[in-house]
Amino acid sequence: MNNRDFTEEVIDIGAKGNFDKYKKNVKNYTTLGIMVVLLIILSLNSVYKVDDGTVGVVIRLGKVSKVERSAGIHFKIPLIDSVRSVNTSRVSIMEYGYQTVRRGTETSEPVYAENFDEATIIVDAVNNNASIALIYLMVQYRVVDPVNYLFKVDDIEGTLRLALEDSIRTTVQELTLDEAKKEKPLIDTRVKEVLQQKMYQYESGIDIISVQTQDVEFPSNVEIAYQEKENANQYKNSKLEEAEKYSNTVMPRAHSQATQMMEEAKAYERQVIAQANADVAQFNALYNEYIVNPEIIQERYYIEAMRAFIENNNVIIDNTVDDSIYKFFNFNNNALRQSVID
């Protein structure tokens, strides 16, 4: 072997050694990088964040392990635990009988799309006076039990809508036309009670905050009949009010007149009794005097009777011999007697 061949062989062996060393280093760096990446992934997967107003439901091997309600950063087992976030503070809205296409702004009115099939209901079916009506309402609800919300009911929105429809039809058909038209708070209260009970039975995990009836409409023929009934009721109420006003005016006046008549009767009663008592006293006095001097009393009453008789007559003929008739006039002189005769 010459020197050239030996040199080439040494170079080849050196190059191969460098390559093997480089290959080994690359493998080591790759392994280290993979480990670093895995470590980062595991580190990131071992923490989760719970925002304000939300709840973190930790699921471990397909089962609920924990419900974290405190806001902030929390730890979990990487690759084993998973976390589902549920907003328990947001108030959700479900529209029934209509759908908001575009919300109103300061410069434009809101736009709604009506769903007549959904809004059509039967009213006053209990009294055999059933009528068709259209009802539009809105339901507000929020999540109160995140575990039931996630796992008890597959389709919360669909289940809630079906339960709402059943609650409306069950409740409103018992109302009269007047109640359906005027008593929106009554509809809201009854529908909310029935709907909440159904959602409790389903273990849906949601709470019904409010039911707000937006409007209740009747078809044209029903509306006409209803308006005629309203007009009749208004006419009846106006007449009742007039009668009430008349009663309020006449009764005090009649009471006042009756009181006045009673007072006058009592006054007359007192007057008659007083007069009778005076007459009795006078008679008693006269009777006592009569017992003592009966002839004088008889003469006195005779004279008084004749005087009253004569005073009521314009023409008097005296045929007495001694002019004794003048004693009834109580005249004491001839001049007065002559004037009476003339």
TrEMBL record:
<dbReference type="GO" id="GO:0006508">
    <property type="term" value="P:proteolysis"/>
</dbReference>
<dbReference type="InterPro" id="IPR010201">
    <property type="entry name" value="HflK"/>
</dbReference>
<dbReference type="GO" id="GO:0008233">
    <property type="term" value="F:peptidase activity"/>
</dbReference>
<dbReference type="InterPro" id="IPR001107">
    <property type="entry name" value="Band_7"/>
</dbReference>
<dbReference type="InterPro" id="IPR050710">
    <property type="entry name" value="Band7/mec-2_domain"/>
</dbReference>
<dbReference type="Pfam" id="PF01145">
    <property type="entry name" value="Band_7"/>
</dbReference>
<comment type="function">
    <text>HflC and HflK could encode or regulate a protease.</text>
</comment>
<comment type="subunit">
    <text>HflC and HflK may interact to form a multimeric complex.</text>
</comment>
<keyword id="KW-0378">Hydrolase</keyword>
<dbReference type="InterPro" id="IPR036013">
    <property type="entry name" value="Band_7/SPFH_dom_sf"/>
</dbReference>
<feature type="transmembrane region" description="Helical">
    <location>
        <begin position="29"/>
        <end position="48"/>
    </location>
</feature>
<comment type="similarity">
    <text>Belongs to the band 7/mec-2 family. HflK subfamily.</text>
</comment>
<protein>
    <recommendedName>
        <fullName>Protein HflK</fullName>
    </recommendedName>
</protein>
<keyword id="KW-0472">Membrane</keyword>
<feature type="domain" description="Band 7">
    <location>
        <begin position="45"/>
        <end position="230"/>
    </location>
</feature>
<keyword id="KW-0812">Transmembrane</keyword>
<keyword id="KW-1133">Transmembrane helix</keyword>
<dbReference type="GO" id="GO:0016020">
    <property type="term" value="C:membrane"/>
</dbReference>
<keyword id="KW-0645">Protease</keyword>
